[in-house]
Design goal:
Blueprint: E1 8-9, E2 14-15, E3 18-24, H1 34-50, E4 54-61, E5 64-70, H2 77-95, E6 115-119, H3 124-132
Antiparallel strand pairs: 1-2, 3-5, 3-6, 4-5
Length: 138
């Protein structure tokens, strides 16, 4: 079970949903410096706040970034990802003109794909065992 501090409440639900997201640059170009990564984190924190998502962890290297997000059930991860990548790409291009040479057609900084993995809670084997052990009413 998630830590109690991770449990959030909505109007009609209680939830602890976390996802690990990874975005890579187009063609895995080595683009980012520490200054770029710091600014990317700020931008992505702002986007997450607009979605009522908590950006718990952020880190990256010169060709990719990792995010750990805590999100409400009303948020579709695909919409969050599209906004994170789109806003970050646009703002980074505006604020760091030297990155323009790494953008591929139509101002694309990021690869079209991404990784999203569910995180937290008990391992699937434990959840499966818990469900199997529930008794049905007679």
């Amino acid at each position: 079970m998630a830590e109690y501090s991770d449990i959030r409440t909505g109007r009609h639900c209680v939830f602890a949903l976390h996802a690990h997201l990874v975005f890579v640059t187009k063609f895995r170009h080595r683009v980012f410096t520490d200054a770029h990564l710091r600014r990317l984190e700020e931008i992505m924190r702002d986007v997450c706040a607009d979605f009522e998502v908590e950006l718990r962890e952020f880190n990256g290297e010169d060709d990719h970034v990792h995010l750990l997000v805590n999100f409400p059930p009303k948020v579709a991860l695909s919409r969050l990802v599209n906004s994170l990548k789109g806003v970050a790409s646009r703002r980074m291009r505006q604020e760091f003109p030297e990155l323009a040479r790494h953008y591929y057609r139509a101002s694309k900084l990021w690869s079209g794909s991404y990784f999203a993995g569910s995180v937290g809670g008990a391992p699937l084997s434990i959840v499966r065992q818990y469900i199997e052990q529930q008794t049905r009413p007679v």
